[in-house]
Amino acid sequence: MKIHALRLLPGSDLKKSLLLLAKEQNLKAAFILTCVGSLEEAAIRMAGAGEVKQFSDKLEILSLNGTFSMRGGHFHITASDKNGRVFGGHLMEGCMVYTTAEIVIGEAPGMEFRRAEDIETGYKELKITPLSDHSKE
Prior knowledge:
CATH 3.30.1330.80
């Protein structure tokens, strides 16, 4: 496993930054190991909901999970507000870093993560493809 670490600065879009990193680093099969930080704005799609819930308040990032590659990703976030209320869902674009987001990413050699339309769910779901020996990094 290869490890990548980064710190996002205030004003960075969390999701866009992760997907940009994947493209810049040619990541084929990446996953979030840990993330701590804070947001000043958030856009989260709750489970089973079609609409995206917007938050315009300071939030602590409690966890961030996901699988991604240079071809796209799927992330879930858990956050808490100033009253300690905890909520989470699908990370959407528009989650803006407040003070920091310190992220450690793992990369799995020998495989590639893609998103493919799943006939049963109606969503683009994870497709794991083994890489040939000559393309492993």
